[in-house]
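Write out the 3D structure for:
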Amino acid sequence: MCGIVGYIGFREAYPILIKGLHRLEYRGYDSAGVALINPQNRLSVYKAKGRVDELEKSVKELDLSGTIGIAHTRWATHGEPSNINAHPHCSQTGSLALIHNGIIENYAVIKANLIQKGYTFQSNTDTEVLIQYIEYIKATHTCDLFKAVQIALNHVVGAYAIAVMEKGNPDQLIVARKSSPLVVGIGDNEFFIASDASPIVEYTHKVIYLEDEEIAVLHRDQEPKIVTISNIEKTPEIKELEMDLSQLEKGGYPHFMLKEIFEQPETLKNCMSGRINVEGTHVTLSGIIDHKDKFIYADRILIIACGTSWHAGLIGEYLFEEFCRIPVEVEYASEFRYRKPVIHANDIVIAISQSGETADSLAAIELARASGAFVYGICNVVGSSIPRNTDSGSYTHCGHEIGVASTKAFTAQVTVLTMMALAIAEEKGTITKEHYLETIKELQHIPSKIKKILAIDGKIKELSAIFTYAQNFIYLGRGYDYPIALEGALKLKEISYIHAEGYPAAEMKHGPIALIDNEMPVVIIATNSTVYEKVLSNIQEIKARKGRVIAIVNEGDEVIKALADYCIEIPSTIECLDPLLSVIPLQLLAYHIAVNKRRDVDMPRNLAKSVTVE
């Protein structure tokens, strides 16, 4: 979950590294550090606890020269955030420096062995163990740095994306990965490395996505060399980046999260573009068409995901069962991988992840494929690990998402799942022509309806002031809106640090109703649906116990407006698409409450954007 960045070439490295760290800070912000080799061949390492800004302040008067360097922004796994535990870490002689994203699971065994051999350790990290081990191998095997890295990686267990440089060899940078993302940017006589493409796009659109257990040797004025840890040489496959630099800027918004909320009308259009025909009468997903028999004859669909993507998966369950008449189970990837799930060759496994690098989802995919299931990936990041490790899939095309609390990626995932359900149902003949056409037509209207909701942002901001200092929230929904209750509660927890829980509204009587009093705000999604009367009864039960109700209702609903304490009106749509609208005011409510509480909305405490470790 940490962010790593590196450079070797003809430019001064530090400005590139520090800008890269700022762009990667959403991946971790406990501490930051940079290592440079200056023209006099001196290796300098500077580190600071806290944000990248703290690192910048601490190095202002120091020597920052050099055209090779590595840098890191940390999300702590081993060892608390501190200057000592920050990366880069150096070997005992001070000749090697390393940055690392991931976890070395057998570090304790290696560390104990090195201590017996006289090595001492300054930090509590697994990363320092790795760089000390590389130096030990280099000395005992009398080999160069590349060979030492290769040997070391054959003996470590765990996940890693690393970059290593050597004081006596300023013309070479060595990088490697396993189960943790790493991209190499190819410039003219220069190379860039990073956890994702955001620090690279400003300088080049040519990249190499390293595969698991690959090592790249980057040398000035030479072509990149890629060799596996088992010593098989690979031909580098250069890809073109599909990222716009403007996606990495706030564009006048105070936070990336607010920008990304307001981008949703456009991102959903992009998501549908080329997949719904001009006439609005047909959905085409190549990932489905190329394997349509797999879907037509599937016995079951398993959806695996984490966090917000899991909530999207719950909506997918309702869609596939209603439209396609295929039984669906939705699993947390982190649980799925550690039990003994029953997976058959006739199952479809759908893995959903914004980043395409979620460690638990990747492990679940590996398990599913080993059982013979067909695996379909839904993710946002082109070239990430999930599309490279699945049989087929669809990109969400919602653009780079920087805010840690996912917003536009969620609605794009739900949109892709909706189009998938429509495409499969048409192939299976389990949906009427009228329902098929009605859903496509209404799906195309969703972006303009989201714009109408965004237009009442000021009203939601005013409402947020009333509840800024609430201690707890309950979110309720039924049917398609139950996952939105979960998602609304998660957003509030993530960025405001207010305790919130989402429940199916009917389950309120089975326990949560005991919490209702005049201090408990209850957000209830009460849009027009087949269970509208049931939700109305839930609201009456809450009001009878003096609960304070914030209701999400459709425009013109006077019944609930007369009953609830506060109402947020949204446009009407067909029931299966309601989540795409009802989630928007909940995103805005969470955002404004967090801002009122002076939280760091884009970088909430203890969280990182992409969970690439267990």
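The first strand starts at residue 3 and ends at 8.
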